[in-house]
Amino acid sequence: MKEKILITRKVFPSIVGRLQEHFDVESNDADYIYAPDELRTRLQGKVGALVSATEIINAPLVQACPSLRAVANIAVGYNNLDLAALSAAGVVATNTPDVLTETTADFGWALLMATARRTGEAERWLRLGLWDKWALDMFLGVDIHGASLGILGMGRIGRAVAQRAHGFGMTVRYHDRAPVALADEKGAQFCSKEALLSLSDHLVITMPYDPASHHTIGRRELALMKQTATLINISRGGLVDEDALADALADNRLAGAGLDVFEREPFVCPRLLANARVVATPHIASASLKTRLAMADLAADNLIAALGYGACAGQPPSPLNPAVLRT
Ligand code: 8YV
């Protein structure tokens, strides 16, 4: 008899097929988000789970699911997983790095350009039939070429965002816990968070979220930014204090914000939604077909291997708590 696993959200049929070769699979074709009680109930008797960022795998849940041996996240960010609790229970946790880096960086630029040049606002206005004549001062934005780009969090995605800036002749600065070794991102300079905030014309947030990085961008930080700057967030909503951001935008202390992520998704702060200078998208930075397929495939590879099946049995490609594999 095959061991049982749970797929918590709808995934591509090819992924279900791959998992069915090894496991008795329970899937969620209706694709609703399980409430915590239902998730706990459905995980009973399951040895593995393929989850998304919409599932919170916390200590009480892990303790209530003693059969669980592996949790594979279809995301590179893993703030939805309590790694300490999973490790303590001997459950392997995995994520999906690398496969989404370039696609996510592309989208950071899509948001940056839309925000700086006000394309969403202009298109909404045009579609409303309000364009009766051209004018010299229509939808004046801020330039991207030659401007100063700030990157908060110089990991894989931050570097990919930086690389793309050279075509625009930008000055690139970044802040991270410490300077990082940069092989081919010519000239990205490390600086303090304060310097980054005050010098950047466009600031892109690409750092991971955890309780310690909650509201990394709050009132104090926004006050340091240029009035003509844009703020772009493609990481996690909790990194930005949305009330403080809504205030800064309402007071014209910032040129615009491009947000793919929000503090309480899918809820979006109404004051941000109402502000025309906000470009808002529903957490789709990694959403190209090729990349979402690659993410789901990598998560399936991880789950199969972590549970001891397939050619890489016992060696999942991207474990988050590799020490568990050695015990
Ligand atoms: C995911 C993301 O699509 O990988 C991440 O961390 O934020 C996105 O690429 C999203 O989290 C859904 O799981």
CATH class call of the largest domain: Alpha Beta
Mind summarizing the main beta sheet? Answer: 7 strands, parallel
* Bound molecule kinds, no repeats: 2-keto-D-gluconic acid
User: What number is the mean pLDDT?
Assistant: 97
* Total domain modules: 2
- Find the CATH topology of the largest domain: Rossmann fold
pLDDT < 50 runs, ≥5 residues: none
The N- to C-terminal Cα distance equals 26 Å
Order of helices and strands: EHEHEHEHEHHEHEEHEHEHEHEH
For the CA atoms, what is the radius of gyration?
A: 21 Å
SS field, number of helical segments: 12
How many DSSP E strands?
Answer: 12
The share of residues in helices is 25-40%
Query: What class, by secondary structure content?
Result: alpha/beta
CATH architecture of the largest domain: 3-Layer(aba) Sandwich
Strand order of the largest sheet: 8-7-6-9-10-11-12
Fold topology:
Elements: E1 4-7, H1 13-20, E2 24-26, H2 36-43, E3 48-51, H3 59-63, E4 70-73, H4 83-88, E5 92-94, H5 101-117, H6 119-127, E6 148-152, H7 156-165, E7 171-175, E8 189-190, H8 193-199, E9 202-205, H9 219-224, E10 230-233, H10 242-250, E11 256-259, H11 270-274, E12 278-280, H12 289-306
Parallel strand pairs: 1-2, 1-3, 3-4, 4-5, 6-7, 6-9, 7-8, 9-10, 10-11, 11-12
Helix pairs in contact: 5-7
The structure holds 2-keto-D-gluconic acid.
